[in-house]
Batch of 4 targets.
Target 1
Amino acid sequence: MKKIFTFIAVAFCAMSINAQELTTVPVEDNALGDGSCPAGTVLADNEYFTATTVYAATTGSSNYTYSGGYEFTNWIQLRISADPNAENPNGTENSGCTSVVITAKKDCSLSAFVRTGNNKKCNLFNQKDFTALEATTAYEEDGSNYRWTWTWNIEAGNTYVLTERGGTGRLSGFGYTSNGTGTGIQNVAAEKTTVDTPAYNLAGQKINDSFKGIAVKNGKKVVVK
């Protein structure tokens, strides 16, 4: 009976973890300035990551609702002319736009909410080797544009560069979940239960406390004295 209740407790704990919702981080008014913001502007800073602009960029306000009902008001223009590489680790500047450096403090899944063309793509490059991370996507149609949600898993201690090429995106904000995937169970510790496992003699007969000699317990031979 005790094991049953332990299993139920673990199951409820798992359900609670799965029910964890995305925490959104909008681009706030005080980060945007009057129609533009300078290079080095901190767009987000929390216990999981910091997001900082690389170049001066145009900003504005529009009410956008993304998949899942996430609403944002402000935006900053996201675009570069060339992808990050060893010579230009943050990508090369495109007038009025910026890339964004993401410094990961804890493992998490990171989402970027960006309104851009329906055939455009945002990338998150790991600055260790300048490879683009695999992303999952969701979108809401918006005329010739989509309101995209791009999501990647990031690791503590790494820095990344958020970019867009081929179109100018409006970065509305970020989101994160602490388990690194957005769904699923990470480490759920169940209570250990001690069970008195029976032992048997070599003939397969269950033995009692008076038995002396070689016995089998938990699939292993033991000497009972």
Target 2
Amino acid sequence: MRRSEYVSFDAVGLAELMAEGEVTPAEVETAAREAAQAVDPRINAVVETWPADHVPTPGSAPLAGFPS
């Protein structure tokens, strides 16, 4: 998933894409990290990031698999 695709969806839309199998949680996480890294030098709002220890199965909850 390219960053331009990532930013065109809200959390619900991304969760739906994951539930449908169109993207994986790992792809969404990578896009989210890239988006944060791209804007943080200007907004200085990201304190820290860390990889998810457990990624729920997409579709098992409304926002399952979405990076938090």
Target 3
Amino acid sequence: MISAGDFRKGVTFQIDGKPYVVVDFQHVKPGKGAAFVRTKYRDILSGAIREKAFNPNDKFEKAQIDTKEMQYLYSDGEMYYFMDKETYEQLPLTEDLVKDAIKYVLENNDVVIKFYNGEAFIVEAPNFVDLKVVQTEPGVKGDTATNVTKPATLETGAIVQVPIFINEGDVIQIDTRSGEYLSRSK
């Protein structure tokens, strides 16, 4: 059992047998009245996001989530195929399950796949990845204003904002959680 007072981002719980994950939370202690936990949570199976205020003493059953590191193999245009590195079994997944992570993952890279009752519900890319810039406008010499960015297309097809000194062929590090440029890679 888990209480609403213990909610943190990523915590999984069940309401009426349905699994949810905490997306955002805020412990609120008003001057008048009882404290509560304002929570934004996502239905693991449907992806729907809800908001609700819970009493910090409310108790919930913990949702059992299994995670497995798998290798991304390829896409045939409709399905994305992943391989279990221990059993070598292949797992085909639809685009809606992989759309957030796949834009930062190259073939043969490892990802984390989360399962609820044996069904995959989300694919997570590594937090930081190094990818090559395949298309971007050249920086203008003399344009030295701070924080000037331009769009760059990466080898996976993702488009991110990068500083003007980044050129085609550069390998850059990306934070996959926010989609932001971090640095040039060595």
Target 4
Amino acid sequence: MMAEGERGARYGFEPFDCAPALRLEAHERVATLQFESLNKRLDRIEALIERLEKRLWLTVYGVVGVILAQAFQSLLQGMP
């Protein structure tokens, strides 16, 4: 049989460590990990949006360049 003092040391928990507190700590750790993961995803999405925006502007400048080139060409053809 165990004495009363050995019984408390066997479990290794301090008196203030209880199941709800441990569950709360675990929940806080999970929430922290989820927020870190969410921030990483948002950073990747922002990088993708920036790349897409650069491509969009390149396309717009290309279309404007073609229109201006056609206008300039028609002006050159119209001159005697």
